[in-house]
Design brief:
It contains 10 helices and no strands. By secondary structure, it is mostly helical. α1 crosses α6, α6 runs antiparallel to α7 and α9 packs antiparallel against α10. The two termini are about 40 Å apart. It is a multi-pass membrane protein.
Length: about 260
């Protein structure tokens, strides 16, 4: 129980620090909001939401596109948060001292990612509300989409965090990996079902793909498919555990053979 209490304390401290950063560096927060808004406009303007709606037999193509965008946005935030965090800590010399924590290092980055994601949700909520005034869906439908996405992204973000841990491992072994993570984020946008339905079974290995389909089916009134939910859980648990195993191995090897100072 003491360890659980400590974890909650770490989370609240991390959330407080993140809030202070958001307030202190308002320009950075605005820039982040603009970046997410820009990505959303690219998805809406250069894709065909109406065609997506036709594929599902609904007129809510824009709303379905927003569901995909929400999953992708929060997913890449989880992926980038932990990979960039490790790279930054290694560059500033904090990583070695953090390995002395009573908690596994991946736990600290997981908590940090959770705190950062809460502010990403605020950006996405603002973007969604603005979009609702120019589309055929209501604010109530938007809030329903956000709540459902938030619920199922708690699962899909495990897998995205795991992938982020793999890139973080690359940062430890090969140093700078941030540009490769950015490339992957763009590829995920193009290859997943953000703005079109699933057309290939191999897409299901992307952590958030199953979550997008489940939320869209709920809006269609079909409920939650148990088989799809189980597949979503299995895929994300595998990515999560695999990422942690790789990360722990790289940390152990770096302690033995490498140097945290050589970045």
């Amino acid at each position: 129980m003491k360890k659980i209490k400590k974890l909650f304390n770490i989370f609240w401290i991390q959330l407080y620090l993140e809030l202070k950063l958001q307030i202190r560096y308002v320009n950075s927060a605005i820039s982040s909001l603009v970046l997410y808004a820009g990505a959303f406009l690219v998805v809406i303007l250069f894709t065909n939401p109406a065609q997506l709606g036709q594929a599902y037999g609904t007129k809510q193509g824009v709303l379905f596109t927003i569901v995909g965008f929400l999953f992708w946005s929060i997913g890449i935030a989880s992926l980038g948060g932990c990979s960039n965090g490790v790279e930054t800590d290694e560059r500033t010399g904090l990583l070695e001292s953090e390995t002395q924590s009573v908690f596994p290092l991946w736990v600290l980055y997981f908590i940090q990612t959770l705190a950062e994601n809460l502010f990403v949700w605020i950006y996405l909520l603002i973007i969604g509300i603005v979009a609702s005034f120019f589309s055929m869906f209501t604010v109530a439908e938007l809030l329903k989409a956000i709540l459902l996405t938030f619920a199922f992204s708690l699962i899909s973000n495990l897998g995205m965090f795991g992938i982020g841990m793999i890139f973080a491992s690359g940062s430890i072994r090969f140093k700078r990996m941030g540009q490769w993570a950015t490339i992957l984020q763009a590829l995920l946008l193009m290859l997943s079902n953000v703005y079109f339905p699933v057309y290939n079974a191999f897409q299901e290995v992307i952590p958030y793909v199953g979550g997008i389909e489940i939320v869209r089916q709920i809006f269609l009134g079909h409920g939650v498919s148990l088989s799809k939910l189980m597949l979503l859980i299995v895929v994300n648990v595998i990515w999560f555990l695999f990422g942690i195993l790789i990360f722990n191995y790289c940390i152990k090897k770096e302690r033995k053979n490498g140097s945290f100072d050589a970045f």
